[in-house]
């Protein structure tokens, strides 16, 4: 804008469209969460937000793109727990979660569900475990690529059950769930944002939720702890990022807009229907998000290496 200097840019921000990169396909959980908050955030900022899906390699392609984008506040990343697991899964990630990004704020935390095609034989979670152990060579487990939350949940399931299954990777939950509904794959573990509607419609069957408490929108589905596998405990936190050198004033503006969006009753209601809720205002901040990311990087590094998974 010709006035030079980051402070001048921050004062007029936003002066052009802001792009939020979703590192998974359209119609999946990350996309759903992003589209819920994009308009209320744009309204709070007095600008326009467009959502761009940059899928591939379990979210790491889109994340890498944003790490290398201009640090001007016009390219933002929505990513989830995969930001903290990828360094343990990829030898050559091409970006560093803590060094290459500035955290804007946490957004939500989404429970996961262990789900199967509607006509898959096992009736209960315990039956599922028995069935996959007996049929490890033929059972197929869908995921959204190495680094995806569904991949992580699948790893934890296999480690807890002591079984190695045939994994079928997709570019996101959107296409994976389409194939699950169509019966092309047997089962998967994915987020309530996208599975709960299909479960309620009886297009897929649910065995368990991966949170300590049952999910309000799925009251009949037991927790993994109730079903005998307390080790399978994971929920998918989401957060917004910008490239590391983005002016702090712009990061603050984005975080403020995020807080406004998360307090929007329509957003709260939509999230509740999908089994989740916004984080508190205190967690929708750069510092709380960064502290959470630091803790999660350590936690998942250990869990993934304890599960015997080597980065590749
Ligand atoms: C998606 O948006 O497709 C998902 O969050 C993928 C995943 O991590 O399982």
UniProtKB/TrEMBL annotation:
Q: Which Pfam families match?
A: TctC (PF03401)
Q: Note the InterPro entries from the entry.
A: BUG, Bug_dom1
Q: Which domain of life is it from?
A: Bacteria
Q: Which UniProt keywords apply?
A: Receptor, Signal
Spell out the family assignment given in the record's similarity comment. Answer: Belongs to the UPF0065 (bug) family.
Q: What is this protein called?
A: Tripartite-type tricarboxylate transporter receptor subunit TctC
**What organism, scientifically named, is this protein from?**
Actinoplanes lutulentus
Lineage from the top down?
Answer: Bacteria, Bacillati, Actinomycetota, Actinomycetes, Micromonosporales
């Amino acid at each position: 804008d010709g006035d030079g200097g980051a402070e001048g840019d921050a004062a007029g921000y936003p002066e052009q469209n802001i792009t939020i990169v979703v590192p998974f396909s359209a119609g999946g959980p990350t996309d759903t969460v992003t589209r819920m908050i994009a308009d209320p955030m744009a309204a709070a900022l007095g600008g326009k937000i467009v959502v761009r899906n940059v899928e591939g390699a379990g979210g790491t392609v889109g994340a890498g793109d944003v790490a290398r984008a201009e640090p001007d506040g016009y390219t933002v990343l929505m990513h989830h727990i995969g930001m903290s697991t990828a360094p343990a899964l990829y030898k050559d990630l091409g970006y560093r979660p803590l060094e290459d990004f500035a955290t804007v704020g946490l957004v939500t935390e989404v429970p996961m569900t262990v789900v199967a095609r509607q006509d898959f034989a096992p009736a209960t979670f315990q039956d599922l475990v028995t069935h996959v152990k007996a049929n490890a060579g033929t059972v197929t487990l869908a995921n959204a690529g190495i680094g995806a939350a569904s991949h992580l949940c699948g790893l934890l399931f296999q480690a807890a059950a002591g079984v190695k299954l045939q994994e079928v990777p997709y570019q996101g939950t959107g296409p994976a769930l389409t194939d699950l509904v169509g019966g092309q794959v047997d089962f998967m573990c994915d987020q309530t944002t996208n599975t709960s509607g299909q479960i309620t419609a009886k297009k897929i069957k649910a065995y368990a939720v991966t949170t300590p408490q049952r999910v309000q929108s799925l009251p009949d589905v037991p927790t993994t702890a109730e079903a005998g596998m307390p080790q399978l405990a994971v929920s998918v936190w989401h957060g917004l990022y910008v490239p590391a050198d983005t002016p702090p004033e712009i990061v603050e503006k984005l975080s403020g807009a995020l807080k406004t969006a998360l307090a929007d009753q329509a957003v709260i209601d939509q999230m509740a229907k999908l089994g989740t809720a916004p984080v508190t205002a205190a967690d929708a901040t750069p510092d709380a998000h960064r502290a959470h990311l630091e803790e999660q990087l350590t936690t998942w590094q250990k869990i993934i290496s304890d599960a015997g998974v080597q980065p590749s």
